[in-house]
Amino acid sequence: MGSQGSKIDFRQAVIDLTSKKGKQDEAFWEQLWSPDSGQGVSDIFAMIPAEDVRRLREDYPKNLASLFYKTLEKIQHARDTPSTLSERKVINCVRLLTRLIPYMYEDAEWRGYFWSSIPTCASWYSLSEGVASFYYGWCISIGKVDNLSLLETCELIWEAGVGFASRPASNAQFDQNRTEILKLLLACLSEVIYAPITDENRLRWVAHFTSAENRHVLPLFTSLLNVVCAYDPVGIGLPYNYLLFNDSREPLVETALQVLIVCLDKDSQPKSDDTGYSDNYFINYLGRIHREEDFDFMLKGITRLLSNPLLSTYLPNSAKKINFHQELLVLLWKFCEYNQAFMFYVLKTSDVLEILVPILFYITESRSDPTRVGLVHMGVFLILLLSGERNFGVRLNKPYVARAAIDVQSFTGTHADLLIIVFHKLITTGNHRLQSLFDCLLTIIVNVSPYLKSLSMVAANKLLHLVEAFSTPWFLFSSPTNHHLVFFLLEVFNNIIQYQFDGNSNLIYTIIRKRQVFYQLANLPTDAASISKSLLGRKGKAREEIIDQLKSPTAHVPPETHAGMFV
């Protein structure tokens, strides 16, 4: 009954804020962060609906300013005297700020309020530095202490891994507290979503938080990185363990991953020294990692998480599956972009194939979903980045053992065969919005082609089918750049014949068997009348006839258009 009464008091306090003007006493504010005001973040979010926040912002701005000031004041008090305050109260304060900040960002004037020099806003400015809230986040994560200044930096790191060998004590409550703090931090850093692209200050939160002005930047970066890379969703492998026990670490890992990606935004770095901020120290520290044991820890962590949805077990759905693989691909891209030594380490180990297979799985699963086009782009760009190095092409010759439910034709061959088959499927059955990736897909095959020792018959047929489809007159003439795709494929054949002729009898046989395709390409008409006739003939053909001609399932493009996709 007491808990229910506190919820009623909390809701009544919110109603009073959105309907009354004037000052409130301390007892009024205590209702908003009472330990019994909510059992979780969902309770607080439900008791402060979006329309109430917007009404408070538009009609009672002084009440909103007072609410921020009082809430932040409570967090600052917890930072200064952590052993004297209820942990639950501070977590409720954090949740309250997390709920309100996004609605503040909707209004340009309130975005400026966070950086105002007005005395009542000065303490809120300290939150922008990430000191008050996150400092207390460490405090309630490591236990009750009287003086935070006595803590060593290593004591603030949450997980063993890069730069820290000892594993600190942890429990479910610590993980929940850290997750709440990181969600508040993520809300603070999300101004870029609401600010217009022309606003030069839209990344000021990220720039400030990742600069030297945040004296906790190193333990924060290390904690986020280690928490993500050390996470093992399967654990000891007990079947259905995720149904029996609540995993408090997964929400922390997902939130830490999102914060880490946001802080690794290189656009937050100043264009000149006039901004008052120095370099992005997250990027700086990531680029300075050089020990092989650290690279091994990072690579194994990313590989373990990327491969998680591909796990196959005798018992259906007996292993826990994670759903933040898109963020993992972004993080892997940033690892390779900001630390070349890490990328070279990945390429010199066979683990690069343990990354390739999950990426191919994700882009295959996402090819027909318009909402996941970004995931496909990220996966293709990662493979393109890796394909520029010789070691990647050499590693592709390792035999592929089917262990993942990748939706491709059954074959016996190497990882190179898998790569070609997946790319063929992406081109022929993918969403039409993926057409811009055709150049990238074929460039990857060109990059690795000099090192492919033995293509299977299935992969060879896929390559020849692409030549057949891309060299049809209506496709070549429908866009001034479509001929580049044929050039890429011819370069693939030239590279394989020149450098790996002996082991590629399947490809040579397929080229000879399909020689008519090359004869037609050599005799392609180039006069204006023939080109017009080809395009008009394309319009007159029924879709079924074209599919029968190409003998392959293809992506849908209306017959009356010349969008570049072939059907």
TrEMBL record:
GO cellular component annotations of the record: Golgi medial cisterna; Golgi trans cisterna; membrane
Pfam family, one: Hid1
Organism domain of life: Eukaryota
PANTHER family from the UniProt entry: PROTEIN HID1 (PTHR21575:SF12)
Protein name: Protein HID1
